[in-house]
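Service request form, structural biology core

Requester: graduate student, group of Dr. S.
Request type: structure prediction, single chain
Budget code: on file
Notes: please return the result as structure tokens.

Sequence provided:
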Amino acid sequence: MVPERLEPRFELLREEYVLVQAWKKTASYIRYHSWFSDTLVLDRAAVNLPAFLGELRERLQSADTWQNDSLRIVPAPKSQRWRVRKGTWEPVERRATAARLRPLAHVSIADQVVGTALMLCLADRVETLQGDPDPRRSPVRKPECRKRVVSYGNRLFCDAIGAKLCHRWGSAKLYRAYYQDYRTFISRPEVAAESTPVADERRVHVVYTDLRQFYDRVRPALLASAIDQIRRDDDDPEFFSLAKSVLDWGWDPSDQRNEIPIYTKQADIDGFTRVALPQGLVASGFFANVVLLSFDEALRTSIGTEIIPGILLADACRYVDDLRILVAVEANWRDSSDALGKTVTDWLGRILSAKAPGLMLSPDPKKTRVAALSGDERPLVRQSARMNRIQSAVSGGFDALGGE
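Core staff response, request fulfilled:
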């Protein structure tokens, strides 16, 4: 009998009805979102899907025998001009290019499907732990709702059943709509500022910062530890053994010799020979949230408390690697906005070190912004549009008019 809800059990994961849904969700996501993927591989697998799934089930006879395929790096430009010259895809300006590359990864379709199947079996548990991001069910204007959810990025499409979030594993939908959740995220500091009672002698500021090279810095051991933290006593140990094996990739030997050393040196990343969250894996967004579950919980429990004397944490929210921290500062705080930003990021850094060792905030001062939402500096204004423009500028997004 096909269960209504999935759970982390190895024998359930390798059932054909689970793998076929994992295939459908994976193939659909890749076709619509991964511009660099080899869609011919999808077509070949789709032509004889029963044979593909049969081979996959054979490889899943035991969690101990699973072996991933090697990753292939796809060096993608990040906010700079590129060209094809003499048959080679290269930047127009070759100075310091590696620091402006995203090391996207081509993941084999078999690894993709198994990764998605792992996600489906953990979906209800992880999404429930993160809280309901739907603004219709969790209005941001209510303080009690803000304390239940801080994470908005890469959330799965779920139904709320009582206190639980349940992913429709048999449907075609996978992740929630980006537009709705991102709008909620960027407007939340302003809404929170308007609905949070703050003493007259305090001034309200929002601090924007982000995690540095988030996906690239998550090592397999960190992800395995995060998954173990949501494991229950009666869970199937073979499922978690498989998860540890699957979510640990190595690069193709040719990439390991040539491209990877260049990127790791210039981007200053250690241990990039093993990858837990390839930028190209459909399930990477979901498991990125798993890595930060403890960090998010620390933010939730800190809301309403002082991070240092004189600075109250009024609210906090996260969209993947972007953070918005709302603080209420006593009127006698005389330091500059830059000093306030450093105080907040130092506090965040200490939490990261404790809850997700190896991750770090961006050290670039340009990646941190402080905006006053009240006080003498400026009146309370509509911030969501302004913060959206800051986000685009800081992230180095594609400028259609400027051509970069």
